Amino acid sequence: MKTMKDIYDLLKQYGIYIYTRDRIGDLILMEDEIRELFKARVLDPKDFQTAMLIIRQETTRLEREGKIEN
Q: What superkingdom does the record give (predicted)?
C-alpha cells in the first residue's frame, strides 16, 4: 500500500465506498473506517499504520496547498 488509490481499493474490498465531493471529508471518513477495520481485527497492524500514514500525508499535502485550514 503506497497511495490513496491503494486505500480506496482496500476499503472497496470490504464494501466501503467513500466519495463526498469534499476531499477532507473523504479523508476523515477513510480514517474512521480504517480504524474500525483495525478494531474489528480485519486489518493487521502494519496495514493499519501504513494506511493512517498515507491519509495523514495527504491531509498535510492539502494543508500545504492551502486547500484546508488547520
A: Bacteria
Domain with 27, as residue range(s), is 7-64
Number of structural domains, the chain? 1
Contact 34, 48 (CB under 8 A): yes
To the question of pTM greater than 0.90 for the whole model, the response is no
Grid cell for residue 30? 477513510
Each residue's pLDDT, cut to its tens digit, for the chain (70 residues) gives: 899 999 999 999 999 999 999 899 999 999 999 999 999 999 999 999 999 999 999 999 998 988 666 5
Residue 70's SS3 state is: coil
Asked if residue 35 belongs to a domain, the reply is yes
CATH number at residue 46: 1.10.287.760
